[in-house]
Design goal:
heterodimer; A: 111 residues; mainly beta; 4-stranded antiparallel sheet; B: 109 residues; 5-stranded mixed sheet; 9 strands
């Protein structure tokens, strides 16, 4: 089983719909992160959380919200999806001052 | 966040060493140098990191210049599975990874 699991792996939806991407981890890490990746580019940080009660905005948080339901779960929501949010989304986890471990990504297409 | 500069692409042959350069002239004294790689259709994968001294692990070696303004990731014997995009990232404190475009490494059989 993967240490960092993202669901769904692929999603196609329409403009204006609410979308939730989920991430769960079995590594016991306190820190969790959401990134997006656009074609040919590196990853950009959307939100991060250092524990269940700590949520922080990243570089590109507008249009997104997150929920840290438990230490092991961190979900990303798009309240009203728009086409320029079409991208590959990655969740990552880490321990304190440790390297980040990434999931396999969710490919999201908004029509 | 301090910036890094990497070549857009590099090419090497299987079973030969590969040296991937990274310039970070504005690095601060507390920035760690991290390398990640992203294989096709996968999330990024941690490779190695260091602060001042050269580092070795089972995947690669990291050579850090004495003035810390540049570093080199060394793959000692490249395989086809090492074909990926390699990212050099400076991290301080909050561990917010700031990815550049990275170097796309092609390995020829």
């Amino acid at each position: 089983d993967a240490d960092v699991t993202q669901t769904p792996r692929n999603r196609i939806t329409k403009t204006g719909k609410r979308i939730m991407l989920e991430c769960s981890q079995t590594k016991g890490h306190d820190r969790m992160y959401w990134y997006r990746q656009d074609p040919g580019l590196g990853l950009r940080l959307i939100y991060y959380s250092f524990d269940v009660k700590d949520i922080n905005k990243g570089e590109i948080s507008d249009g997104y919200s997150v929920s840290r339901q438990a230490q092991a779960k961190f979900s990303l929501s798009l309240e009203s999806a728009i086409p320029n949010q079409t991208a590959l989304y990655f969740c990552a986890t880490s321990g304190d001052n440790q390297p980040q471990h990434f999931g396999d990504g969710t490919r999201l297409s908004i029509l | 966040d301090a910036k890094t500069t990497q070549p857009n692409s590099m090419e090497s042959n299987e079973e030969e060493p590969v040296h991937l350069p990274c310039n970070h002239s504005t690095i601060s004294g507390t920035d760690y140098i991290h390398w990640y790689r992203q294989l096709p259709s996968q999330g990024p994968e941690y490779v190695i990191h260091g602060l001042t001294s050269n580092v070795n692990n089972r995947m690669a070696s990291l050579a850090i210049a004495e003035d810390r303004k540049s570093s080199t990731l060394i793959l000692h014997r490249a395989t086809l599975r090492d074909a990926a995009v390699y990212y050099c990232i400076l991290i301080q404190g909050a561990q917010k990874l700031v990815f550049g475009q990275g170097t796309r490494l092609t390995i020829n059989p």
